[in-house]
Amino acid sequence: MSYKDKLTYINKADKISLMNENAINEEKAEPLRDLVGKVDRMLRALNNEQKLIVKTYYMYEPKWNYVSRTYLDVYNEPRTVGQLKNIRDTAIGIMLKVINI
Fold first, then answer.
1. What contacts 87, CB < 8 A, 6 or more positions away?
2. Using CA atoms, how far apart are residues 10 and 13, in angstroms rounded to an integer?
3. Residues 69, 81: contact at Cβ < 8 Å?
């Protein structure tokens, strides 16, 4: 087998293995796309204030000090942790209503 033939054979084998791996990853990605769609629908139901608090707490940093600083940076209005938790609870209630529709 010459060098050129060997190179072609290796490239075909690599291509086939990559195509198989891609098919497996596509199968794994489909349920994740569905979940992302559901979360997106739930977040669209919230107002900007609720969306900021939910995203900051659950997707970035689950610490209320960080959430309160982020809220202060965006809205220039200080809120206590209790107020932020009440806004979060209201937002979760809205999100649950979207799920149960």
1. 49, 50, 53, 79
2. 5
3. no
Structure tokens at 58: 């659950």
**Site of tokens 């204030």:** 49
For the full predicted model, state whether its pTM sits above 0.85: no
**Structure tokens given for 10:** 């290796």
Q: From CA 48, how far away is CA 28, in angstroms rounded?
A: 32
Which two tokens mark 21?
Answer: 């791996």
**Distances 25 to 1, 11, 19, 30 between C-alpha atoms, Å:** 34, 21, 10, 9
Residue 7 has pLDDT above 80, yes or no: no
Please report the sign of the dihedral spanned by the C-alpha atoms of residue 17, residue 22, residue 23, residue 25. positive
**How far, in Å, CA of 43 to CA of 48, rounded?**
9
CA 48, CA 7: separation in Å to the nearest integer?
56
